[in-house]
Amino acid sequence: SHSINLAVIPGDGIGQEVVAQGLKVLAAALPQDVKLETEEYDFGARRYHATGETLTDADLDSLKKHDAILLGAIGDPSVPSGVLERGFLLKLRFAFDHHVNLRPSKLLPGVATPLAGQPAIDFVVVREGTEGPYTGNGGTIRKGTEHEVATEVSVNTAFGVERVVRDAFARAQARPRKKLTLVHKNNVLTFAGHLWTDVFNRVAGEFPEVTTDYLHVDAATIFLVTDPARFDVIVTDNLFGDIITDLAAAVSGGIGVAASGNINPSRDFPSMFEPVHGSAPDIAGQGKADPTATVLSVALLLRHLGHEAEAARVEAAVEADLTERGAAVRTTDEIGDALAARVAS
Amino acid sequence: SHSINLAVIPGDGIGQEVVAQGLKVLAAALPQDVKLETEEYDFGARRYHATGETLTDADLDSLKKHDAILLGAIGDPSVPSGVLERGFLLKLRFAFDHHVNLRPSKLLPGVATPLAGQPAIDFVVVREGTEGPYTGNGGTIRKGTEHEVATEVSVNTAFGVERVVRDAFARAQARPRKKLTLVHKNNVLTFAGHLWTDVFNRVAGEFPEVTTDYLHVDAATIFLVTDPARFDVIVTDNLFGDIITDLAAAVSGGIGVAASGNINPSRDFPSMFEPVHGSAPDIAGQGKADPTATVLSVALLLRHLGHEAEAARVEAAVEADLTERGAAVRTTDEIGDALAARVAS
Ligand SMILES: CC(C)[C@H](C(=O)O)[C@@H](O)C(=O)O
Ligand SMILES: CC(C)[C@H](C(=O)O)[C@@H](O)C(=O)O
């Protein structure tokens, strides 16, 4: 018997509502002998407006003590663009070295997709989470004048690329199709592109059973809509991963069902699990938000903490619910209740 | 009466075949009193293998004398990734300051799309062509070691952003819907993002009739598959433009019909027109390539040179052909002949 010590960050907009359902399902999924302890944090727009703070060193120290973090959504139109993204979301990913950003896509029978012909979609994107154009490197000179120059520096290291590429190979190796696609733009971004390609080819030698493939990011977006069934595992850089995972979510059931894990496989720091969608302030507080993406993020959290059977049970409950969902409109709470009931049964 | 002095670069793979059709249609479209003079250049993989050259200063001097350039496709698997892209395609865009990269998307009735429900798609992307992450800035240290660091620097200037943003506003102003969407990632790439956003908002003041909108690039990919009808004109950075125009092509009939213009509106240098697709070596020489994208690029070329009526005639011929195309398989030549016949009639 042991306990899970979970940090909960509901955040802004619909975050509160969807996180409540995630916790409901988590409680239903855990074995009796596992004690769930949660501590709630008030990060996001409210705290920023009240105190000017987004994420302090003391916050990081406090968060660090938990086994994992469940996040709803952070972001509000009342806060200037970039403040909460750079000051909270990215700060946390960097501080806790969340270098494996895991984003599975699976289109279930009966789930709406904008694509014709309901293709077979079942792949996972392993997005690098701590490098690339996300480092905040760069700057501005002569701001606001006609001579302004603004730069953004994408930073890529052999260390950073290799660990995420190896993680992706291991995930591909563990899946039935054993196929890994590197997505980059190595014909234009030749410095970073050569590093990614060299490391990818080198690590491939350690995984002879994995079939490998390379696509430029622009071509990858084409295949994501014309032939998504070709993908099994994709590994890619932070920015390309941001872009293609939103597209992947759109084609495989929408961002209402897209889960993600910001993972530090070393367990030196807690990993964080969150829906891919944002805070959707336009529908907040109305019980309209779909908590499915948060519940699927809870499944990733369970798997990360070693509760594989429970993770699989949550995923099976979601799959059954989505397949049978039909056209009936349910509230956030009703979907959460239905999922928790399935998991408990 | 005057003449058009055209540089023709068939290039690699299917380039030769599709350019031949483009020229056929161009000849059919031009008024009797306009003399068409063409000069063919042998750039691409063959010349690179024979001489090691991709594009010399002498080549640039020679190309510069023409009124416009028609390009088929450049690229071959026998050449290391990046050599022809950076050494020819991008070198030319930079040398001739092709800062307006124009890529229209229109889904015609009867044309296949991977999207369900045949949405109404009719928008144009204005992609910046000479800045951003495409400048070749950056580098590598400790190459090939476990301590390698590779950087890519996105360079953005007020001068460069403003001219392309103003061009996009003017294009939006000239269209019935008068709507312009800025696509960037200003919540993460805050230095470049603020420059783009500030310039966009400032120039908007000069175009009070144009409705404006902003989307993060990841969200834009979602809307391109769930609600492409929302777009009228999009303006965006070089790399984001590369990515979303391939996706735009995929949803609006495929890269077989996606045209582009690399435009220098000042006319100090010739602009270049090319299909968005690549050299497709797997189908080269078999008469299987669809020349439609090249023919639509010829329409952009005609419009750029002031032949608006002829451009519209070429576009109307393509629209009629696509709408009536049906399932019959035609060769590259047959499609070119059919389009030329429609244009001439
Ligand atoms: C909100 C933003 C910082 C974030 C990102 O770009 O990573 C989001 O788009 C995501 O994909 O998690
Ligand atoms: C081939 C490559 C250099 C080019 C680009 O990235 O611009 C192509 O993808 C395009 O979109 O024209």
TrEMBL record, chains A, B:
Designated gene of the protein: leuB
Q: What does the record list as coiled-coil region(s)?
A: none
Question: Per its UniProt record, what NCBIfam families does this chain match?
Answer: PRK03437.1 (NF002898)
Q: Which UniProt keywords apply?
A: Amino-acid biosynthesis, Branched-chain amino acid biosynthesis, Cytoplasm, Leucine biosynthesis, Magnesium, Manganese, Metal-binding, NAD, Oxidoreductase
Can you name this protein?
3-isopropylmalate dehydrogenase
What is the documented function of this protein?
Catalyzes the oxidation of 3-carboxy-2-hydroxy-4-methylpentanoate (3-isopropylmalate) to 3-carboxy-4-methyl-2-oxopentanoate. The product decarboxylates to 4-methyl-2 oxopentanoate.
Query: For binding Mg(2+), which residues are annotated in this chain's numbering?
Result: 218, 242, 246
Q: How is the cofactor bound?
A: Binds 1 Mg(2+) or Mn(2+) ion per subunit.
* Pfam families xref list: Iso_dh
UniProt xrefs under PROSITE patterns: IDH_IMDH (PS00470)
Enzyme Commission number(s) from the entry: 1.1.1.85
Any one Gene Ontology MF annotation carried by this entry is: 3-isopropylmalate dehydrogenase activity
Under the heading SMART domains, the entry gives: Iso_dh
Q: Which residues form the Isopropylmalate dehydrogenase-like domain?
A: 5-339
Q: Which organism is it from?
A: Streptomyces omiyaensis
Q: Where does NAD(+) bind?
A: 278-290
Subunit details? Homodimer.
The record's family statement is:
Belongs to the isocitrate and isopropylmalate dehydrogenases family. LeuB type 2 subfamily.
* Pathway it works in: Amino-acid biosynthesis; L-leucine biosynthesis; L-leucine from 3-methyl-2-oxobutanoate: step 3/4
Q: Which reaction does it catalyse?
A: (2R,3S)-3-isopropylmalate + NAD(+) = 4-methyl-2-oxopentanoate + CO2 + NADH
Site positions (Important for catalysis) are 134, 185
Which cellular compartments is it found in? Cytoplasm
Q: Which cofactor does it need?
A: Mg(2+); Mn(2+)
